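Whether sequence alone determines local backbone shape is best considered at the level of individual chains. In the encoding step, the backbone of a single protein was reduced to a row of integers, each denoting a local shape. For completeness, the protein is quoted in full, as a sequence line and a line of structure tokens.
***
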Amino acid sequence: MSRLRFAVVGDNCVDRFQSPVNLALIGGNAINVAVQLALLGHEAYYFGAVGRDADGERTRDLIASNGVNVDNLRMLPGNTAFTNIDVTPSGDRIFAYEDFGVCQDYVPSDEDFRILFSMNHVHIGWICDRGTTRRRLADAGTSVSQDVSVNNDGIHLGTEGLDVAFGSAGEDRGKAATMMRGFLTKGAKLAVVTRGSEGSAASDGRQYAETGITPVSIVDTTGAGDSFIAGFLQAHIAGDTLQASLASGRECAARTCCYVGGFPQEPRPIR
């Protein structure tokens, strides 16, 4: 597979697993997708913001060490985004508190856009920009995707102009089908929906494909959906079929479930 140039725009986050785990990992939709694309052998550029704090420095250094270009990562006054996660005795995760930090006000600059326009593809994660980044990239003819299932106000989400709209429907096949139709009706060229243990499906309104999951011994599902996006995009942008692209996403997601966090890293104790 040829080496492609991808950019990922949007969020980053420090996941702080509370007692009894007491460990912190770097993640976030956009960060996870960028790192996974780099690990798949592509040029991956991250556009986002972190605070001028220890978490920001750790985020920058960690993703750079995994091959992501951080030339357009901004370090701003304020704190890096973080999420406090409670873990129940049964192992379920409860997102107890989120602080979006300097991510809250991040939007790409005009200079950033000049670079984004040169990419083979741009993926957008969580971003509070009223859809500006999506529309500007689409208007310029840049191939663009977005995860529209992120926890964000609807005013910042939309599918019009997207080459690929990604969503998550849990394990509800009916919901997934409805979601895909909605994405296509509202302007996406291709709709891709994950269905948990029921696999994933994709449609452009003419073709339809679906696949199951790759069974693995699950360690942690954090970031599996983001890894699916990276795996799907690398195949789809290279010109593979919908079926092959879903399979690529499935395999990437399965690998991520075999370790803790959205990409391989050494967790750090919460200070």
The first helix runs from residue 29 to 39. The mean pLDDT is 93. Helices lie at 29-39, 54-65, 110-116, 132-139, 173-185, 224-237, 242-256.
